[in-house]
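Friendly challenge for the regulars: who can give me the structure tokens for this chain first? No prize, just bragging rights.
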Amino acid sequence: MPTDSRRRQILGSLAATGLAAAGVGPARAQAWPSKPIRIFVGFNPGGTTDPYARVYGEILGQRLNAPVVVENRPGAGGTLSLGALAREPADGHTIGITTSTSVWGARTLYRRLPYDADRDFVPLGWFPVGPLLMAVPSTLPVNDVKEWVDYARKNPVSMASYGPASVPHLATEEFNKRYGTKINVVHYKGEGPMWPDVSTSVTQAGIGSYMALAPHIARGSVKVLASVGDERSPKLPQVTSFASQGFDGEIFRLSGGLLMVAPAATPEDVLQRISQAFVEGADSPKAVALREAFAIGDKPTTMDEAKRKWREESPIWIRLTDQLGIKLD
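First reply, four minutes later:
Bragging rights claimed.
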């Protein structure tokens, strides 16, 4: 007859085997979410990442009946925030939102990153931001992109950028390489501090979202010269695209967007629940108001569509960023 200690060992082994057979391990035994969910934002308030995080964070919290906290962690073009996210447990309690540059282009800008985007993250959804807009100080004597390029050939000019390898950064490279300009790029920690400098002629141009630009348009301190991508901004239908004005580089044809991501080892059912909450919440009053305010036509995508964009578009961003030929560390 087994001793008491032997009996306990056998019973323990049987119990463990039963749990494994049922697919119920320690991580599964605990209900999710079991604590507040955090959303890391790689930029300061003032652009598109912060309001997207707050609106969809509220939607997620309501659908899961759990508190959601947004944490702004700006710096290094969003890579500091992603580095912190990569160190978080993959338990569905921490996710992040950032630009495509941070997850795709940054790998060519930095010799060492605190994450490998393809290995460490999985996209939860692609969040369109509408056509990005190029604007200049209203006092600048130009009215379209060609006139601005001609002006830049003859005068010292700088382009405001919301981060390294962003659309304005890549556009500056395109102008300098193909059109003989010597435009300097000035990087800011997001769009919030960027547009005031454009509006007061500290810099001579910027490219960014309608929402961040709108107050300066309303004050008449900037004028919009062109839009990125194929669509026109519904708020500014008179503004034509770069391509229609003869500037056909790849960077001027890409559609902008943000990626909501989670640590790659997060359980699949948790990823699906988060993604589904975003998709289903896209018609809520606050989500509709957000798209209206930002002049965004499209809703956030499913997780599968975000994965497709990752596969198909990340090589383009990586190649364009690599062509900059710079390292930031």
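Residues 133-252 form a domain with the D-Maltodextrin-Binding Protein; domain 2 fold (CATH 3.40.190.10). Confidence is low (pLDDT under 50) at residues 1-29. Your move, everyone else.
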